[in-house]
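Page 47, continued from p. 46.
Same chain as before, 349 aa.
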Amino acid sequence: MRIAIISDAGEPQVNGVVNTLRSTVRCLRAAGHEVLLLSPRDFRTFACPTYPEIRLAYQPYARIAEALESFQPDCIHIATEGPMGLAARRYCIRRKLNFTTAYHTRFPEYLAARKLLPRAITYRLLRWFHGRSQAVMVPTPAMKLALEEQGFRNVVLWGRGVDTAHFRPAAEDHACIERPLFLYVGRVAVEKNIEAFLKLDLPGTKWVVGDGPQYEELSQRYPKVRFLGAKGHDELPAYYNCADAFVFPSKTDTFGLVLLEAMACGIPVAAYPVEGPIDVVDNGVSGVLKNDLKQACLQALKLDKEVVRSHAERRSWESATQQFLQHLHHVHLPGQRKVAAIKPVRESH
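Result:
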C-alpha cells in the first residue's frame, strides 16, 4: 500500500511527534508498504513564533500537491495542524479525497499557558481542522474522551510504543553523581510545567535534558540543577540509565513517549495523575502518580527496576503501527469504513 504522511514536525527536531512518525514509518516500510513522509525539511521554512528553534514550511501547498500527485497514495494521513497540515487538508478537500488526522499536541492548553489564545478559541479552530477527517487518531483513552467532550467526532485510538532494544537497562559510571539522581527529559518550556520539578526540595541531584524557550531563564534561576541541553535519539539511553527516577511534571501532554523510554531502561516515573501518565504508568508498579510531586519522586525510588522494565516491554511499535493501519481510509472510496486487505505489521521478537 502507498501511504502519504504529512507533518509539520520533522527531523532534526527532537520531540514525541518526530519520534512517533520515525518509528511508525520504519514499521510500515518493514511490512512492505511504500511511505512518503513530507516534513518542513523538504521546504522553505520560517521560524515558529515564540519558538524560533522550530521551523515551519513557507507556502507549502504547491509542492505538497505536486508530491502527492506524483506519489498517488492509497491513503493520506495528516499528522499535524500547522502550515503543512493545512495545505494537505486543503488538497484533499479540493479533490474530495478521504484523509485521516492525528491529535499529538494539546495546543489549547499550550497556547493558554503562554497567554496567547483562550482554550475555547483554539478548540474551535481544531474542531474545524479535524472535522473533515475520517478518523482523528489519539494515543490514549483519556485523550479520546477529552476530545469527544470538546465536540470532536470520529476519534479513534492509536497507541504508542517503545524500542526496547534501544532503550534498555545498562551499567553506567555513577561514581561522580550525588545520589539519588532525578532526571527530566523533554522541552524546556512553560507548558511542560518544568518548574514544578526544579523547585522541589529533593535529596541528591537534578538533571534536565532538553532545550526550549525557557532554557536560558531556568538554567540561570536554578544553578544547582545540571542543564545538559538537547540530546539525540542515540544518546538518550545513557542519560536515562544514570537516573534513579524520571520526573514528568507536565499536565498537558497527550501521551509522553519519554515515560516509556525511561521505563524501558528500568527507571521508575514520578508524575501527576493526569492525562498521559495515567494511561502509560502503572501507578505503584512502574511509577508513582501523586498530586504531591515530591512524594511521588521519593516513593518512585523504592520501586523494582526489573518490574518497571517489564511494564514497558508490553508496548511495541509494531502493535501501535497495526492500530494506525487499521484506522487509515482509502482516498477514493468515500463510503468505505476501513482500508481492505491491509498487510499486517508483524511483531518483532
